[in-house]
Amino acid sequence: MLASAVRDCAGAGWDIYELDLPEFDMTDSSRVDEVLELIGPEVIVNCAAYTNVDAAETDESLAMRVNGDGPANLAHAAKRLGATLVHISTDYVFDGLKTVPYLEEDPVAPQSVYGRTKLAGERAILESGLEKFFILRTSWLYGPGGKNFVEVIIRLATEREELRIIADQIGSPTYTVDLAEAIFNLLTTAPRAASPPHGIYHFSNEGQCSWYEFAEEIVSLAKEQGAQLKVQKILSIKTEEYPLPAQRPTYSVFSKAKYKAAAGATIPEWRESLQRYFSARA
Ligand SMILES: NC(=O)c1ccc[n+]([C@@H]2O[C@H](COP(=O)([O-])OP(=O)(O)OC[C@H]3O[C@@H](n4cnc5c(N)ncnc54)[C@H](OP(=O)(O)O)[C@@H]3O)[C@@H](O)[C@H]2O)c1
């Protein structure tokens, strides 16, 4: 999902090489070295991950290989080749117990296998000795070309009269197109900065909402666009009424001050970005 937005966002001047399973498995270090040496990239943007949060609970070893060993392999290759590594991480590295926005340096405490494996990926990059890297933690990602909450709600709203959506988890939706733009903002800012702004960043759309509020907005925009919906009622429920294998952070709003200062950029509010997504998919 994110990789296609990054590809589409790259302006003239970028030669993009898209690598994916099965021909490129980032857990295979010799394959990573072989392919990247052949390409000789200036930048490696890692959008790949084991992203099935609930399946990870019973598939820890594969999740750890992909989310921990994969980024480690990319970091070592980037260091050898003098390339910059951009890596995407997640709000799931935090416990979700804060009530004000998470800063990059806040203590991490993942509550799920997925969160622990993504944290292992971050740590592998930090420990690789690679200097030129950006780790962007993001949350509630949606965009074209992927299975995501927005598409799930639109589908359910066409199939069911009543939706029951969790209202006690608060976060910030993130449109892949905005995240892709943020990646390029950081990459193009770095060579001009007095001291290169490499490191960990938080990025999501501005504002916050519950999944329930997010779903309400999705249904309202789908209606405006003339979608034939069956849904009559959206009910707010509590997390414990919809048990899932992996624990989600209750609160995962990010402070984006570090990104905004480094990139000299503003970030669209989540409702505005959702509207742009609906216009694009119309
Ligand atoms: N989605 C969210 O809500 C969310 C929130 C916060 C952070 N993130 C992070 O954002 C990034 C992008 O997420 P996304 O939703 O765009 O992911 P996605 O659509 O699930 O895409 C992940 C891609 O990684 C590939 N992949 C899996 N294992 C691989 C391996 N060993 N080698 C090479 N490629 C492999 C997958 O291939 P297959 O499809 O063939 O398995 C898939 O194409 C990820 O790092 C994710 O952890 C996502």
Structure write-up:
By secondary structure, the protein is α/β, with parallel strands linked by helices. It has one domain: 3-Layer(aba) Sandwich (Rossmann fold). It contains ten helices and ten strands. A four-stranded parallel β-sheet has the order 1-2-3-8, sandwiched between helices. Strand 2, helix 5 and strand 3 form a beta-alpha-beta unit. Helix 1 crosses helix 7, helix 4 runs parallel beside helix 5 and helix 6 crosses helix 8. It is globular, with a radius of gyration of 19 Å. Bound molecules: NADP nicotinamide-adenine-dinucleotide phosphate. NADP nicotinamide-adenine-dinucleotide phosphate binds next to helix 4 and strand 2.
Mean pLDDT level = 96
Instruction: Please estimate the helix content.
Output: 40-55%
Runs in which pLDDT lies below 50 for 5 or more consecutive residues are none
Query: How many domains in all?
Result: 1
Which homologous superfamily in CATH is the superfamily?
NAD(P)-binding Rossmann-like Domain
Strands, helices and their partners?
Layout: H1 2-9, H2 29-39, E1 43-46, H3 53-56, H4 60-81, E2 84-90, H5 113-127, E3 133-138, E4 141-142, H6 149-159, E5 162-166, E6 170-171, E7 174-175, H7 176-189, E8 199-202, E9 209-210, H8 211-224, E10 233-237, H9 257-263, H10 270-281
Parallel strand pairs: 1-2, 2-3, 3-8, 4-7, 5-10
Antiparallel strand pairs: 6-9
Helix pairs in contact: 1-7, 2-4, 4-5, 6-8, 8-10
The protein binds NADP nicotinamide-adenine-dinucleotide phosphate.
Brief account:
The chain has 282 residues and is α/β, with parallel strands linked by helices. The protein has helices at 2-9, 29-39, 53-56, 60-81, 113-127, 149-159, 176-189, 211-224, 257-263, 270-281, and strands at 43-46, 84-90, 133-138, 141-142, 162-166, 170-171, 174-175, 199-202, 209-210, 233-237.
